[in-house]
Amino acid sequence: MKKIINDPKNYVDEAMEGIVAAYGDRVAFFENDKRVLVRAGKKKEGKVGIVTGGGFGHLPLFLGYVGEGMLDACVVGNVFASPSYTKMEAGIRAADAGAGVLCLYGNYGGDKMNFRQAMEDCADLEDIRCEELLGTDDIASAPAEKMDTRRGVAGIVFAYKIAGAAADEMRSLDEVISVTKKALGNIRTMGVALTPCVVPEAGGPTFFIGEEEMEVGMGIHGEKGISTSKIMTADEITDMIIDKIGEELPLLAGSEISVMVNGLGATSLEEQMIVYRRIAQIMEEKGVTIVAPHIGEYATSMEMAGISISVFVLDEELKKLLLAPAATPFYTNISR
Amino acid sequence: MKKIINDPKNYVDEAMEGIVAAYGDRVAFFENDKRVLVRAGKKKEGKVGIVTGGGFGHLPLFLGYVGEGMLDACVVGNVFASPSYTKMEAGIRAADAGAGVLCLYGNYGGDKMNFRQAMEDCADLEDIRCEELLGTDDIASAPAEKMDTRRGVAGIVFAYKIAGAAADEMRSLDEVISVTKKALGNIRTMGVALTPCVVPEAGGPTFFIGEEEMEVGMGIHGEKGISTSKIMTADEITDMIIDKIGEELPLLAGSEISVMVNGLGATSLEEQMIVYRRIAQIMEEKGVTIVAPHIGEYATSMEMAGISISVFVLDEELKKLLLAPAATPFYTNISR
Question: pLDDT at position A336, please?
Fold first, then answer.
């Protein structure tokens, strides 16, 4: 196993320690718990709290987005494993500032079970109003008529940005939910994987992709996608993904979208730029304007090679919230 | 070859088109030349120009650092190949705003030959005062007594930041040179590589690293380093590198440094955080304060796996310039 790590048992804790050592001006552990990361400094009374969480191994997701203008707390488990509900309760308590808490996370069974238990307990015992919204942006994981069974992947970063900006404007919980729901409805993602990743405690790849093959629609934990195919060119991959997304989102002349080209971990920025170039060409042909393109690693599977493309259809309100300032370890937006 | 690309012949041009499509508000092609990238918008008369350049395949280096507070122009060649001197002349002309131009680039034979020809021509024909400073931060590439033969690697990003901030303060060319020289003298880098990279037109790896081995001190084009060793733990690698750097830089109690943990392309952010954690521990023991740690991919070899660590010893002047605002495609600093 070629990884720069120490004892695999300490993998998550040590990476978490590194994050707080590096970004202690922006983030901190909550009650010394290395699995619960919160914004540094004092809470803003009356602000809606935004909490997320899930398995570890997707940096910068989710931890890199805790901070001004985005998340208030993030709870992580072991690699690709849901945190326990008691950790999630801590995250909700950490984020609560008297105006309720939105749990905004990806649609995975373990996370759902544990977040729901934690929300129930926090409502009953702590009298915190808790609501949830789920990321279900991965169009390869189920057909449109089964939308609510789809997985959440990189597109949730756009939703964090919208929810976080709305909460920072001191909107009420109902208002934050309403605009975040609108955002989630306008986000779709699809990806391809070229190589597998290695879970440190397992020590070897957890699945296999042939030397000249790619997995179309593979999930960020190696979940099976739509098909296995021979590796295609960058333009062919991009055209295929944008076509699929275009079946669900209106990409109409005169409209505005944002786009995320996300490297899954081992894919070079050069390749991501080549993919973005093709997206820009397609959208120019369609008369669609791209606002604030996001290109880089936003949601990874450690060292998996591959990319995903997310499209986020904007209106004036969503655009304004997307462009609002943010300052987290891995997402910095200067006000324009 | 597992890359998301189109025709390998178009690799560089298409990636460059992607960069300008994505960041057209910050950067532009100079005279429609896809190998010469400049800041978007009007030049500031009387500002010293900062120019860099070299072979392609190291994104975000160098292109990602053109913009406010850093570089004025960047010239790139083919993958791992120096641009021609005529392209470098274009870069110098593009950056010239009447106060002279600093060519700040890594110490590689082809780049040196071509930059020097271009500087001579620009001085003779265009009456532009041109000076150069070379990045030689890679301590594994030659012993200290042969400092001027060392390669330039990731540490040059710190030098770009210092030179760019000094130029943006409207300092004279001599002043910019003086402070940048001081910075270069205070920066050292060393790295390890775990897997090779693939040059698109070659189609296969250009060198080989054994399944349980790593290359200590390998360059960002696969140049041989100090030794081949069995893969070590993250803490062992970090200790070894910081020890070597400590032989050349004073890491004294009470002093301030910045640190860059740089992923070479395929190394996960989780691993980089584990390495940073160890650096933070070591520096805390020494009583050295780390300012503005840089963790991520700053100078890559496309999809090579491995990391480098750079240490930059600060004084008050260097610290102020390091923390000054910047806004480039891949380096954003909010004023603190």
Answer: 45
